[in-house]
Amino acid sequence: EQLANQIAAGEVVERPASVVKELVENAVDAGSTTVDITIEEGGLAFIRVADNGYGIEAGDIATAFQRHATSKIATSSDLFRIASLGFRGEALPSIAAVSRLECVSADSSSGLARRIVIEGGAITADEPANSPQGTDMTVKDLFYNTPARLKYMKAIQTELGHISDYVNRIALAHPGIAFTFKHNGNVLLRTLGTGDRLQVIAAVYGSNTAKVMLPVEAENSDYELRGFISKPELTRANRNGITAIVNGRYIRSHAVNQALMQAYHTLLPINRYPLAVLEIGMHPGLLDVNVHPSKMEVRFSKEADLRSLIEDAVKQVLSRQRH
Ligand code: ADP
Ligand code: MG
């Protein structure tokens, strides 16, 4: 069991950013309206994610740290219509296997809180606690018991870069959630949770950038598209300015990138890319997210249709803007 957790940890917990991703996605899945993320030393020393979501029932808290304990899939056919961000029940046991983890959670129905501490996979405390509604997860000394993994960690700035990138994108994906992100005491991102995506774009990229973003909206019978794209005068040196969000999940998609680039094709100089935040909604049955444990890759059932929806919508917005 402990070994299985360490093996799974190798897949799920590649670096501090993976821990932040899993904890924040759990917070989002729990219906939180505020999520506070605090890290130290690029996340290697300290990661804390505190949310105000529905919490973990006191009686379930130890179970949540067992492998494949997910409250998010009822039957195996549910795997084909996954709507929440998590679904494998691998994250918490994997993280707890390679760190010192403390979880304090109070669930919304009973109001009872419980605290559990797990060090290198072994429970060292499990007791009643006092806490406002929500879940507070602290992960210290990541990889302290897996020195081979620790050795692969890059400079603090590099790890911070990965975390910051992820936090920015999950904030862009969920403008209705107020995110705060602090590193070594400095606030790096604060969003208001008002649902205004332009506010989040301003918080992430600056208010001058937000001013040159154009709204896009389109739909066909299978897909809904909405978001913002940059005017062609605002270009970037790489594709990192493209954020694709599929059913609330930030993903990397070659198909989405291609469709966008195709639409900007004649407008951008060579080797320049647009900035875009595109949210794509669809029936979960049209989406296969079960490609990789990190859940970054997806497959679309009707990829060609989606590509033309994006390409046409973006082209239309860009040409309207030039007239
Ligand atoms: P998954 O997200 O795939 O279900 P995890 O290992 O990430 O698996 O979490 C296990 C379970 O713990 C979740 O299914 C959920 O019930 C509970 N849980 C974890 N984090 C939170 C949180 N922040 N708020 C409420 N419940 C949580
Ligand atoms: Mg999860």
UniProtKB/TrEMBL annotation:
It comes from the Bacteria. Residues 201-319 form the DNA mismatch repair protein S5 domain. This protein is involved in the repair of mismatches in DNA. It is required for dam-dependent methyl-directed DNA mismatch repair. May act as a 'molecular matchmaker', a protein that promotes the formation of a stable complex between two or more DNA-binding proteins in an ATP-dependent manner without itself being part of a final effector complex. Belongs to the DNA mismatch repair MutL/HexB family. This is DNA mismatch repair protein MutL. The lineage of its organism: Bacteria, Bacillati, Bacillota, Bacilli, Bacillales. The chain holds residues 9 to 331 of 679 of the full protein.
